[in-house]
Design goal:
alpha+beta; four-stranded antiparallel sheet; 12 strands; TrmE/GcvT-like
């Protein structure tokens, strides 16, 4: 998304200034750090008492995804209201030179509340409970209209280095593209203004599109996948990493019904410690009902020529089609919208 905005900002003649703050390593180990801003998040059932302790007084719980300000250790920082998996919290950011001091202040304030520092692996696992698919494949690889964008992209850009992974295999790259309805964003589509792609979206019948669901993985089947790495007589199954099991930039695992028909794609997979269950976010055919038992084909095609695929055998894992968000708290307490039971 940042590359897309930068390209149009440079090439489309808009009167706009764009500042890009590229990632730097969280642990530099002597490497140069070029970041201008730090970004942290305070999240969980005790998040708000910590936030109010840092502020030194009451802090209003503004609506989901509203922005504000907070003062920490005498420094004003910017905030974004979050509610990952239904728990209150804020995302915070400010000038990079303040990062270590602010981080230490947060950890000290949170000590009595059991606050634990965690990294990016844990940060992204909450999407399994809250229902956000973070890495759909950018739909820019086939259209002649996007040729200029592809030629503009740097060789080290996300779009250039993106890696497809999973059991679903097609020679047509467009089979991996996803539209807003398949990702659960159909309610955001409005045709009261002009935008790139409007004509294509207007031709889509929302009622016939796949829809986003959560797949709850069978504990026995997932256990076999995990313990297969101890099998001394064979390669075992594709490694199921914790808490996030995705092993490519964009994962596509085939979702199969009782007749062996592919009825969807499992897109983001991992383990929820809160739910004590393996979960994946998926998009499935519109006639697949909540409560249906399906199977996810876990692992790469045996004939893959990918050099990045470790030797393994594919496994069929039973899954139950479940609501999205999976977290009951998130479904009942989020504001009205795509993640609300009242949407």
């Amino acid at each position: 998304m940042s590359n897309w905005l930068l390209f149009h900002g440079e090439k489309s003649g808009y009167d706009v200034d764009i500042e890009v703050d590229r990632r730097s390593p969280g642990r530099p180990y002597g490497k140069a750090v070029s970041r201008k801003y730090w970004r942290l998040q305070i999240q969980g059932p005790n998040a708000w008492p910590i936030i109010e302790k840092l502020q030194g007084g009451t802090v209003e719980q503004v609506k989901f995804f509203r922005m504000g300000k907070l003062t920490i250790d005498g420094t004003e920082v910017s905030t974004l209201r979050h509610g990952m998996a239904g728990a209150p919290g804020l995302e915070l950011w400010g000038p990079y030179e303040d990062a270590e001091r602010i981080r230490n202040a947060i950890l000290e304030a949170g000590r009595e509340f059991g606050l634990e520092p965690v990294g990016s692996r844990a940060y992204s696992s909450n999407t399994l409970e809250s229902g956000w698919i973070p890495s759909p494949l950018p739909a820019v690889y086939s259209s002649e209209a996007e040729r200029a964008y592809r030629e503009w992209l740097p060789v080290d850009s996300y779009e250039a280095t993106n890696a497809l992974a999973g059991s679903f295999v097609s020679d047509n790259i467009e089979d991996y593209y996803l539209n807003p309805w398949e990702l659960g964003y159909g309610s955001f589509v409005k045709f009261d203004h002009d935008f790139i792609g409007r004509d294509a979206l207007e031709k889509i019948d929302p009622a016939t599109q796949r829809r986003k669901v959560t797949l709850a993985w069978n504990a026995e089947d997932l256990g076999k996948v995990m313990t297969s790495l101890l099998d001394v007589e064979g390669p075992g199954n594709q490694f199921f990493n914790l808490p996030n099991a995705n092993y490519g930039s964009s994962n596509f695992d085939s979702v199969i019904d009782a007749n062996g028909k592919i009825v969807g794609a499992s897109l983001f997979t991992g383990y929820s410690a809160n739910e004590r269950r393996g979960l994946s976010l998926a998009t499935v055919d519109p006639d697949v009902e909540i409560g249906t038992e399906l199977r996810v084909l876990w692992g790469e095609d045996p004939n893959t020529e990918k050099t990045s695929a470790n030797p393994h055998t594919q496994a069929e894992v039973r899954v139950v089609v479940s609501p999205v968000p999976y977290s009951v708290t998130a479904r009942n307490e989020y504001h009205g919208g795509w993640r609300s039971a009242n949407a």
